[in-house]
Design goal:
Radius of gyration: 21 Å
Strand order of the largest sheet: 3-2-1-4-5-6
Structural class: alpha/beta
Distance between the termini: 54 Å
Number of helices: 12
Strand content: 5-15%
Shape: elongated
CATH architecture of the largest domain: 2-Layer Sandwich
Mean pLDDT: 88
C-alpha cells in the first residue's frame, strides 16, 4: 500500500536497503529480477513509498550477501513494524500529525525553524512547556499535561549525540519577551536558549521588533532536511487542529526561500545572544 508520509521505520529500512544493494554492486534491475517484480517496485521500496514482504526482504538480503544475523533480524523487525511511529504511538489516535512531526525530527539532519511567538519546542524547558499546555482552552487534565510535557522533553534527545542534526532557529522578539508562566519560568527558559546557542550544531537568531515587515509575517513553520537524497524536504505548519505537511518541491522551495530571507533580516547569532541576555537581565 502506498504511504505518502512514511514512518521513521520505513524510511530507515529503505535507506539501509539502498546501502546494502549498492555495497553489493547490484543494480535496481537485478534486484527486481531477483524477487520477480518490475524495477519500479524496487524504486518505490527504496524511496519508502512501498512496504516489502518478509519473504522479499530475506531474498534480497541473501542476494546482497548479507550474513550478519543481527543486522538481518533488525531489518526483519523494521519490516514487520514499518508502519509504527516509534515511541510516538503513545500519543494516541487524536494526534497523528504530531506523531509525524516527531518522526521528522528523529530522522532529519537539518532543521530550520521560524517561531515568531513561542520558543521552539525542541528548546523549551519543562516549566515553559507546562505553562503552554495549561493555557490550552480544552482544559487538559493535570495527568495529560504531564504526559505531553514528558513527550516534549523526550523529543529533545535529538539535540545531543554524534548524530544530532544541524538546527537553525529564528525566534521572534515577541517569543522572548512574552512572560509565559511568569518571570520565574522565562528566566530559566532564556538561560536555556543562551546555553543551547553555544552548541556547534545549533544556531539561534532573533527577529527584532525593529525589523518591521518581513517574509515571516505569515506565521511559524519548520523545514526538515534529510541525509538521504531520495527523501525530499518536508515543511510543517502547525494550526489549531493539527499540522499541515508539505513535501512537493515547489512548496518546500518557497519556504526555503522564505527562511533564507528571514535569516538575512534577523540579527546575527552574536547580536541575538546579546539581545536575549539583555532581556534576561530585566526579568
Amino acid at each position: 500500500m502506498v504511504d505518502s508520509r512514511p514512518s521513521v521505520r520505513r524510511r530507515r529500512l529503505a535507506t539501509t536497503l539502498v546501502q546494502l544493494r549498492e555495497a553489493a554492486g547490484k543494480s535496481p534491475e537485478e534486484a527486481a529480477d531477483r524477487i520477480g517484480c518490475h524495477r519500479s517496485k524496487i524504486s518505490r521500496i527504496e524511496n519508502a513509498h512501498l512496504g516489502i514482504s518478509l519473504g522479499e526482504l530475506r531474498d534480497l538480503l541473501t542476494f546482497y550477501g548479507v550474513q550478519d544475523d543481527v543486522l538481518i533480524e533488525d531489518l526483519v523487525t523494521l519490516a514487520r513494524r514499518r508502519n509504527e511511529r516509534g515511541w510516538t504511538r503513545n500519543l494516541g489516535t487524536t494526534l497523528p500529525s504530531y506523531a509525524d512531526h516527531i518522526d521528522y525530527e528523529q530522522t532529519s539532519n537539518y532543521i530550520r525553524s521560524f517561531q515568531p511567538l513561542l520558543v521552539s519546542g525542541l528548546f523549551q524547558t519543562p516549566d515553559y512547556a507546562r505553562a503552554l499546555y495549561r493555557a490550552n482552552p480544552e482544559m487538559l487534565s493535570s495527568k495529560r499535561v504531564e504526559e505531553l510535557v514528558g513527550m516534549r522533553m523526550q523529543r529533545q534527545a535529538v539535540l545531543a549525540g554524534e548524530q544530532a542534526p544541524r538546527i537553525c532557529v529564528i525566534e521572534g522578539e515577541a517569543a522572548l519577551r512574552s512572560e509565559v508562566g511568569g518571570a520565574s519560568v522565562m528566566g530559566p527558559q532564556l538561560d536555556q536558549l543562551l546555553a543551547l546557542g553555544e552548541r556547534p550544531n545549533i544556531e539561534i537568531q532573533v527577529m527584532p521588533f525593529s525589523t518591521g515587515a518581513h517574509a515571516g509575517l505569515v506565521g511559524a513553520f519548520v523545514v526538515f532536511g534529510f541525509p538521504t537524497p531520495t527523501f525530499s524536504d518536508v515543511v510543517c505548519v502547525e494550526h489549531v487542529t493539527g499540522t499541515l505537511h508539505m513535501e512537493t518541491p515547489d512548496e518546500t522551495a518557497r519556504y526555503t526561500l522564505t527562511f533564507d530571507s528571514l535569516r538575512s533580516a534577523a540579527l546575527s547569532p552574536v547580536d541575538s545572544r546579546d539581545l536575549i541576555h539583555r532581556i534576561r537581565l530585566k526579568l
